[in-house]
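Deadline looming. Please check this record:
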Amino acid sequence: MKAIWYEKTGKADEVLVCGERQKPTPRPGEVLVRVEYSAVHPSDVKKRAGFQPAGFSDGFVIPHSDGSGIIEDVGEGVEDRRGQRVWIYQAQYGRHCGSCAEYVAVPSGMAPKLPDNADLSIGACIGIPVMTAFRCVHVAGDQTDKTILVTGASGRVGYYAVQWAKLANAKVIATAGTDENCQVALDAGADWALNYRESDLAQRIVACSGPGGVDHIIDVEFGQNAKVSAEVLDNCGTIATYSSSKNPEPLIPFYPMMFKNVSVHTVLVYNMPDVAKQQAIDAVHDALSEGQLKHRISAILDFAETAKAHELIESGGVAGCVLIRVSG
């Protein structure tokens, strides 16, 4: 089968190889998926660059955790799902073979059925961003009539977090770094969108939320935003954060948070509890079936352009999904 792989970490155009590798055979409990689209996420790029463990246990890594395709075969103990259209998540987490190949074998539960009305390109967008966003909205409990602040609301996770929050019947205050991206957040359903580069952000957030402040924050930059978060949260407020790239070892405003009984939930989709993953999968199926989620695909590149796709993510110039067209 054709595949993209790397045997060492480094720059995309120096380490990514396009060639032929052996087609996998599904083991017990697995399904073999003929991949149509492979999604490129920042985590995939960081692994290839060497900033995160890549997993060279077999001497090479086929990158990318998410994708979509059609089940071609099933392993022992799996019901006959051949011909089923699926979306794939976590294909390369703790494994050396991800979705950037003609075929990938994954545990059956990591290839949920894609509703008939959803295109395979949409299926490839789901995995990490949509499941992370769902968990961030719901990890702190029922959000009905609550006010949720979503930072980085035009980003991959933030864009879906706005939508999940609205589906949970919450009011949403979004922040983004440009007026254009604020409009993206409004288009996703946010009730208010604020440019965080402008002054007095905390005061502007509270002006939207009301004097009590916000009930819950979904945060893309925990360390950088901790001071503002402490200022705008209501008593017993909660934070769900999935990244702190700009300040990975932050100083926490402990007492301002303690005096408000703030709870912080960190979210990593890969090792979420199984029950939380299943809740997200069920919600995804229902939302896709009802056409309730909007999606943004920034680029679809050919298989041979995988290195270019990695560079596109690294440039920071795209906020939507970047996909590799594997078939054809």
